[in-house]
Design brief:
This protein is mainly alpha-helical. Helix content is 85%, strand content 0%. It has 2 domains: 116 residues, no CATH class; 151 residues, no CATH class.
Length: 349
């Protein structure tokens, strides 16, 4: 049509202009990569906060369906979680104090049994152990140990700070859930908005179901560990069962972390008890990885055993612990998009 400018092809673009445009594109790409790299921790915290907010939105939705205003439902959830945490702390602290006092009182006996053990005698006994310890107490080693201790304290403080930030962000995201959801749907064309809303709600429901499944798996691990420790006579069984349940929220590798802690405590009873603890957790971890975890996740988010295992392994390889946690809900969301959008378009073509 006359009067309208024609678009020039890349071959018709002057070399200098093409070079400038290419340089600007590369600079923008490099800036984007640098920004993502620098903000990696913050982006991970935001992803985890959104994940937690979606999980907490499940009970809020149930309350709003019964007629409660959303702000009131969110307030009830926050107060309930606060009371639950306070109640849990109130139950755990007396156990920690009692078992900690018992450990302090029994520490001299543990030391004497360690010094009299045949294993230590093979390495020269108590005198040799003291001699080795004195040889290591050099100024360089002490300063290195203090530096490592301070670095560990700083890392722990930073992790606690990010954890608190993540919880606060999750609460803010939960409070603005409807507004965020509406803004996201505004990016979809009006003709497809209703379908996109239904698809988004189903994806969020999958994430909430995954969180329920993960809590169930952690509960099973904690109860199983407590039963074993009660039978084996391992001390501090209650608090160790809580540790196992919490660490087991990290799939595939969480049971190993809990096993190391429990086995270390079992070693204070006897070497054979520690060996029995290792055997128990090896067997349980295999059962959890290949039986309990896939079955619970299959019923929670309708993901097959093979898909659950492959998703977790892929997430661990790409993004570490966060990838392990988010792998299955992300796979379920992608599968839902492929099933509802990609496959129908391919069938119509």
């Amino acid at each position: 049509m006359a009067g309208l400018p024609t678009r020039r092809s890349l071959a018709e673009t002057p070399p200098v202009q093409a070079g400038v445009m290419l340089g600007i594109g590369l600079a923008l790409a490099a800036a984007l990569v640098w920004t993502v790299t620098e903000l990696r921790t913050l982006l991970i915290v935001l992803a985890v906060a959104g994940f937690l907010a979606v999980g907490m939105n499940r009970p809020v939705t149930l309350m709003t369906r019964r007629g409660l205003p959303r702000p009131l439902a969110v307030a009830i959830l926050i107060v309930s979680l606060f009371l639950l945490v306070c109640g849990g702390v109130g139950l755990v602290i007396p156990v920690i104090v009692g078992e900690g006092r018992e450990f302090i009182e029994s520490a001299p006996d543990y030391w004497e049994r360690l010094m009299d053990s045949p294993v230590l005698e093979r390495f020269g006994g108590e005198a040799k152990l003291v001699e080795q310890a004195q040889s290591l107490m050099t100024g360089e080693n002490v300063s290195g140990a203090l530096g490592g201790l301070l670095g560990g304290v700083a890392t722990a403080a930073g992790a606690i700070g990010w954890f608190v930030t993540c919880l606060l962000l999750a609460l803010f995201i939960l409070g603005g859930h409807d507004r965020i959801r509406g803004s996201a749907l505004r990016l979809v064309v009006a003709s497809e908005r209703d379908r996109a809303a239904d698809l988004l709600d189903r994806m969020l429901q999958q994430v909430g179901a995954y969180i329920v499944g993960a809590l169930t798996i952690g509960l099973v691990a904690g109860v199983s560990a407590w039963v074993f420790m009660a039978i084996a006579g391992i001390p501090y069984a209650a608090i160790l069962a809580v540790v196992v349940a919490l660490t087991d929220l990290v799939p595939q590798v969480g049971a190993t972390i809990g096993a190391i802690v429990v086995s270390a405590v079992a070693l204070t009873v006897s070497p054979m008890t520690a060996v029995a603890s290792v055997i128990f957790f090896v067997i349980y971890q295999q059962l959890e990885n290949w039986v309990v975890y896939p079955r619970i996740m299959r019923s929670a988010v309708e993901v097959s055993d093979l898909a659950a295992i492959v998703s977790v392994l892929t997430g661990a390889t790409l993004f570490g612990v966060v990838g392990v946690i988010l792998a299955i809900p992300l796979y379920a969301a992608i599968r839902l998009v492929v099933r509802e959008i990609v496959f129908p378009r391919l069938d119509r073509s």
